[in-house]
Amino acid sequence: MDDVDGGYEGKTVLVTGGAGAIGGNLVRRLNDLNTAKIVILDDLSSSYEWNVPVGPKIHFIRGDILDDEKLKFAFKDRPDIVFHLAAHFANQNSIDNPETDLMVNGMGVLKVLEFAHLTDVSRFVYASSGCGVYGLESTIPYEERDVSISLHSPYQVTKLLGELYTNYYHNLYGLPIVNTRFFNSYGPGEVPGKYRNVIPNFFYWAMTGKALPITGDGTESRDWTYVGDIVNGLLAAGVKEEGVGEAINLGSGTETRVIDMAREVNRLTGNALGVVHIQRRDWDAKTRIISSIDKAQRLLGYRPRMTFNRGLKHVHEWFVANWDDIERNAEF
User: Fold this and answer.
1) pLDDT in tens, 189-240
2) Whether 51 contacts 19, CB under 8 Å
3) Which helix (H) or strand (E) holds 170?
4) 16, 157, 198, 303: least buried by Cβ within 10 Å?
5) pTM of the entire structure?
6) DSSP for residue 242
7) Which residue, 21, 10, 22, 112, is CA-closest to 57?
């Protein structure tokens, strides 16, 4: 990654959603590089002040991407690179709050793109969803060209909408964009909650002595991808010319059954209550999710390095180290 890391020397980088699980890990990596300045714009709707990265090069702006004044402040130093990770997350939240989902993931993306265009950024990296833009008719493993327009939640719809807007700015204005599609990200930094991902929620429930609720029979599989690997892909997308104008999967390229994940979480935490099977949610129609990462390997030099069980161990260690804050802030 030395050739990638060197591309950030002296650069000003804006990370919307930089207080979130992926954004926070990205900011911490950027802080270790020779960047000149890192700006975080985040409204803390899915993160907390204790989890915001800090450092002399890091400037945190608490604000909404729909707020023009906050955007002006975030773009005032004319960032070289923008990582747009801010989003209304995720499927069930979008079903419960479809108008908010459209405003944040539609109008919000449009506003950030317009500021990026007006300030002539050298790269705009958009966080899309590999679990969202592919449909039941898409061939497994999912390849970038096989997107669907028959989707199952507003979040999936608006993530695809974001890609359409970034492509529009690339096609009309020449804005150098990269659409990165994340697959089932997990890792240290994600606080559990009603609308959060299954792995942090499972760790929370296991550590509070509850059986882990599996929607389905547990043979369903997911492409869980360690946050550090996704960060490596994002950093490459931010500087490698080969990625400009492309949609690129950032996954592990492997699949793991939900029941096997749950058993490992229970083993790590010493939870003896096992699992309980509950009815599958209406929007949760995919029994298998797995990415093709051939394009990411070819264009970005992307190579996932974290094994799944080792990644789960890192999540458990983070939960233990931050348990008081996690327990206080978990929202169910």
Assistant:
1) 999 999 999 999 999 999 999 999 999 999 999 999 999 999 999 999 999 9
2) yes
3) helix 154-173
4) 303
5) 0.97
6) G
7) 10
Q: What are phi and psi of 212, to 5 degrees?
A: -90, 120
In 106-264, DSSP assigns E strands to 123-129, 177-182, 185-186, 212-215, 221-222, 225-226, 247-250, 256-257
* Domains annotated on the chain, with CATH: 2-185+225-250 (3.40.50.720), 186-222+255-287+307-329 (3.90.25.10)
For residue range 8-38, list pLDDT tens digits in order: 999 999 999 999 999 999 999 999 999 999 9
Backbone angles phi, psi at 282, to 5 degrees: -60, -40
Residue 141: cis peptide before it, omega within 30 degrees of 0: yes
Walk across the sheet containing 123-129 and list its strands: 58-62, 37-42, 12-16, 81-84, 123-129, 177-182, 247-250
CA–chain centroid gap for 308, Å, is 17
Distance (Å, rounded) from C-alpha 103 to C-alpha 287? Answer: 30
pLDDT for residue 5 is more than 90: no
List the beta strands (DSSP E) in 63-116.
Answer: 81-84
